[in-house]
Specification:
By secondary structure, the protein is α/β, with parallel strands linked by helices. It has helices at 3-18, 29-36, 63-70, 84-94, 111-118, 130-138, 142-165, 172-185, 247-266, 273-286; strands at residues 23-26, 44-49, 55-59, 73-77, 102-104, 126-128, 196-199, 220-229, 232-241, 296-300, 307-313, 325-328, 345-348, 355-356, 365-366. The chain folds into 2 domains: 3-138, Creatine Amidinohydrolase, Chain A, domain 1 (3-Layer(aba) Sandwich); 142-366, Creatinase/methionine aminopeptidase superfamily (Creatine Amidinohydrolase). Helix 4 runs parallel beside helix 5, helix 7 (142-165) packs across helix 8 and helix 9 (247-266) runs antiparallel to helix 10. The chain is elongated and about 70 Å long. The mean pLDDT is 96.
Length: 367
């Protein structure tokens, strides 16, 4: 097993003792990449017991590949004669457990897998340990940062193409098509979330996506893109003004850049997430928009575009560490007529100085 993956398993085992967990059942794609380095997979699980070696469970067609790529002891199951869930149960019993405390990730366990586990082990001992995984993944090694950097360069290429495509009478999807093509040409493995090219009042939606809406003069257009490289994500948002827009809306954009700069200056090892948020929030509140602003302004970035450790938000206590990768500044001012502009960058936290990975001018793009 590669040293970096063995180290990650060992760190997971140390964390398991703190939450009284005997075994982790890993089926989420992001965590599978984290513990194996494999991105070409389906029907796979990794089992991490609190003591001893981790193992993988894979479809027999993929077992040799998973073993070679990950270095994990890999147990094959022959579908449909045996299911993934049944093989996981068999392996857990081989570890010597009869009533284990089983830890699950934050998202989506296949019901057939869960049903096999509860049919063989006491369901009262099952627990959600999603934060354990996010904490493990929060500090990136140099190889992870290098992959995020490549994804960020692809996202920047997409932003350049998108802004060249923004003009009246084209649709949001027209702009997105140019951005997506540019990111793929730059090496992206695909978007890390539903990409957003949104215009007019749609910029105030919490989770919009590009549509067939036609861009009109006098509107702002928010372009929020994500790219990936070998599973690792980067994202960025910029805003364009199509012709004349209200001065108040233009001022909101400048205000958000100022808030981002203050948050970025506070984003240092030893600072709390709440302190970073407060630096941005002070700018917003001084301008009188505090009640029109969200409770969180950023998240960790890595194998997901928004990871849940750390969360940069009001009163949060997570401590920023060198090696974290954070996105700032997600929200806009949610006030009709003047809100809508957004600016977001992905930042690698350094011991002495930070590196903004998503390189594209933050200023309002004039169309």
């Amino acid at each position: 097993m590669a040293a970096r993956f063995a180290h990650r398993v060992a760190e997971a085992q140390r964390a398991m003792t703190q939450v009284n967990c005997d075994i982790l059942v890993v089926t989420n794609r992001e965590n599978l990449i984290y513990f194996t380095g494999v991105t070409q997979m389906e029907c796979l699980a990794v089992l991490i017991a609190k003591d001893g070696e981790a193992c993988a469970v894979a479809l027999w067609l993929d077992a040799d590949y998973i073993r070679e790529q990950s270095g994990l002891d890999t147990h094959a199951y022959f579908f449909p004669r045996q299911s993934l869930g049944e093989k996981i149960v068999e392996c857990i019993k081989a570890f010597g457990f009869s009533e284990p405390s089983i830890g699950f990730e934050r998202y989506f366990v296949d019901f057939a897998v869960y049903d096999a586990l509860r049919s063989n082990f006491p369901e009262k001992n099952f627990k959600g340990v999603g934060e354990l995984f996010y904490k493990l993944r929060s500090v990136k090694d140099s190889e992870e940062v290098a992959k995020i950097r490549i994804a960020a360069k692809a996202a920047s290429k997409g932003m350049e193409a998108a802004m060249k495509a923004v003009r009246p009478d084209v649709t949001e999807l027209d702009v997105l098509a140019e951005a997506e093509y540019a990111m793929l040409k730059a090496g992206s493995g695909g978007s890390s979330f539903r990409p957003q090219v949104v215009s007019g009042d749609r910029t105030l939606l919490a989770h919009p996506m590009a549509s067939n809406k036609v861009i009109k003069p006098g509107e702002v257009v928010v372009v929020h893109l994500g790219a990936t490289y070998e599973g690792y994500c980067a994202k960025m948002a910029r805003t364009a003004a199509v012709g004349a827009i209200p001065d108040a809306q233009r001022n909101v954009h400048s205000l958000l850049i100022c808030a981002l700069e203050q948050a970025e200056a506070t984003l240092r090892p030893g600072a709390s997430s709440g302190e970073v948020d407060a630096a941005a929030r002070a700018v917003i509140e001084k301008a009188g928009y505090g009640k029109s602003y969200l409770e969180s302004v950023g998240y960790g970035v890595g194998l997901r575009q928004s990871e849940f450790y750390p969360i940069i938000g009001r009163g949060r206590t997570e401590i920023i560490e060198a090696g974290m990768v954070i996105d700032l500044l997600l929200p806009t001012i949610y006030r009709k007529g003047i809100g809508g502009p957004r600016v977001t960058d992905v930042i690698h936290v350094g011991q002495n100085e930070n590196e903004v990975l998503t390189v594209y001018p933050r200023s309002l793009v004039e169309i």
